[in-house]
Amino acid sequence: MQSPKPRRKPGPTTAGADSAEKLDELLISSAICNGEDLGPFVRKTFATGKPETLLHHLKLFARSKESEIEEVCKAHYQDFINAVDDLKSLLSDVESLKSALSDSNSKLQSIAAPLLASLDSLVEAQTVSRNVDLAVRAVAHCVRVMDLVSRANQHLQSGSFYMALKCVDSVESDLLEKTQSSTLKRMLEKRIPEIRGYVERKVSKELGDWLVEIRVVSRNLGQLAIGEASAARQREEELRMKQKEAEEQSRLSLRDCVYALKEEEDDDGDEYESGLEGSDAFDLTPLYRAYHIHQTLSLEDRFKRYYFDNRELQLKSDSQVSSMTPFLESHQTFFAQIAGFFIVEDRVLRTGGGLISKNEVEFLWDLAVGNMCAVLEDQFSRMQTANHLLLIKDYVSLLGVSLRRYGYTVDALLEVLSKHRDKYHELLLSDCRKQMIEALSADKFEQMLMKKEYEYSMNVLSFQLQTSDIAPAFPYIAPFSTTVPDCCRIVRSFIEDSVSFMSHGGQLDFYDVVKKYLDRLLGEVLDEALLKLINTSVHGVSQAMQVAANMAVFERACDFFFRHAAQLSGVPLRMAERGRRHFPLTKSQNAAEDTLSGLLKKKIDGFMTLIENVNWTSDDVPQGGNEYMNEVIIYVETLVSTAQQILPAKVLKRVLRDVLAHISERIVGTLCGDVVKRLSMAAIKGVDVDVQLLESFTEQLKPLLADKEAKEMKTAFVEIRQLINLLLSSHPENFVNPVIRERSYNALDYRKVAAVSEKLRDPSDSIFGTFGTRGSRQNPKNKSLDTLIKRLKDVS
């Protein structure tokens, strides 16, 4: 038995506690009794160099405990002796128990021997059974593994890579660790990465083939989308034209017009929807399949980067312009390729499940827009043909319309187009100038003959040049030459090209721009070309008359031009009429009329040379007028009968007034000139007859002219009429009366009156003639004429 743990006892105390040794001994004893560490005491002792003291204290402590130990041992020994006596008394009982156990054991062994043999057989059978079960489970596991492997092989052969990967993943995650066959396990560990690598290579190859194929598909897709945008634009324009026709006819049949427009809109909507379905027909299955496979392989981020980098390279390649092919021939393919590219990317963004982000698509679009703007700037700067620039602009605008449907911003492209607006119109003006020069140089100055109704519609009705709504009989001779419809076609083509360039470019109100360039075309190009034609090619009266007739028709055509520009620009006609200015071909119109007047004056001057044959001193008055005037009247009447067929009344009035004024000036000039030395009253009366013939001629023009215009026509020869009236009056001296002069002779110059009066004065009234007639009485009219001459000399 173990001795009980000694109780903690206080160390011995003595009366000599004041000494240091006793204190140290007391402390050591206390520490030992309490089981404390004696290290501090040992270190202190060796530090003071007195280990003997410590040893002494320890020996004293040991001797003090010997008596206690002895007492404890004695107590424990007595207990031991008592225990041995007890054991000796139990020895006989143990022997009897031992013999009983031996007998029981012998009996038990003899009885359990067969049971142990059966138990051994049972344990052996259970062991075999467990081994068989393990083998069966292992075989079943292997069969399941091989089944999945076989299915994976079948999926690989059929191209079902995702299902193959799912089988492989199932084998790896669920069955590989449980596979007990080391051979099979090593094979699986080797083949699973190979299968994944094979699948990745196959889908990567399919993706590469798709990336090559999608470029061709994108080009066709872009062409289809742009073609649909063009068809939609054409339908809108047709609908707009029908709407304008309906507005014009609304007062006649409002209900029918509205119904027709509504039906057309529905048809357009159906066609538009079907076009959208057709434009979206492209296959993204290889791409999404590759993306799904890489997601299964946990390579999603790498695949996204790979796809974006390849598409960016493709875009950069598509944005390059070949120097081997003219841009005019390749621009449709160029823009269609880019359009199809972004139609595909829009579909991938919307249905790709995060394959490409919106920011990445915007990055690609900004890159493409920058490249396209640079290409357009470069190509536009090289182009010198307006039609080429218009073709490219139209296709770019259609590109913008197509891609705007998918949410792409095309403002930068439209800004480039707007930037080259002035250059396009300058080129267009240059082309029109060449065309007009060619058209005018081919003019034969003959009235245009139209044999069929379609010719009339094409050359007259299409430009609203008709003066009546009633269709003429055919063949129809127009008052203008072929120059007019040719130039009208050029101007109309200019308007349509200008509107085509300005429309669909982001600017809604562009009529002012079209009108500005139309004014330049008419005021600079056409007007200058007509002036050049008039100054260089018009040499006869018939040519000048035809040109003047053409100018009158051009005046109506200009009204049509501005209305046509307003209609195409979507501006109400009332607003266009409000902003109309003067006739832009005023210079050439005035030049044509001046040229016609000049040629007629030359022709009149040829007849007026006959005035030299007049006997100015004759006493006989010509009854039918002088010969020169008869010739002039015949020519002028012939002229009017011809001119009124092609010249408008206002043009004819201006020309005739100018010609009649010239005739008046020539007669007055002749009377005042050196050709006429003396005048008789009969000659003056003959001139009066001539003037009456002119007045009679103007009276014949009343069917052509209004009353006011007929009166204005007579003012053309008011000078010769007032001069004749003055010379035939009874009191010619009334000319010097300011009131009478202002009322009746306001067109006369006193110097001319003085010259003619001097020639009319009777010779008998001269100084030398007074000797033979001194006793006779002077004629009152002659006296009045002398007074007039004297007063006029005083004034001069």
What attributes does this structure have?
mainly alpha, single chain, 2 strands, 796 residues, 75% helix, two-stranded antiparallel sheet
Describe, in plain words, how this protein is organized in 3D:
With 796 residues, this protein is mainly alpha-helical. It is 75% helix and 1% strand. The protein is built from 27 helices and two strands. A two-stranded antiparallel ribbon has the order 1-2. Helix 4 runs parallel beside helix 7. The N and C termini lie far apart (182 Å).
Layout of secondary structure:
Elements: H1 20-33, H2 39-48, H3 51-158, H4 161-175, H5 182-248, H6 250-279, H7 285-296, H8 300-318, H9 327-351, H10 358-382, H11 386-404, H12 411-419, H13 421-441, E1 449-450, H14 453-459, E2 476-477, H15 483-502, H16 511-537, H17 541-569, H18 573-578, H19 586-608, H20 627-643, H21 649-672, H22 681-700, H23 707-714, H24 718-728, H25 738-744, H26 750-760, H27 780-795
Antiparallel strand pairs: 1-2
Helix pairs in contact: 1-3, 3-4, 4-5, 4-7, 5-6, 5-7, 5-9, 5-11, 7-8, 8-10, 9-10, 9-11, 10-12, 11-13, 13-15, 13-16, 15-16, 15-17, 16-17, 16-19, 17-19, 19-21, 20-22, 21-23, 21-24, 22-24, 26-27
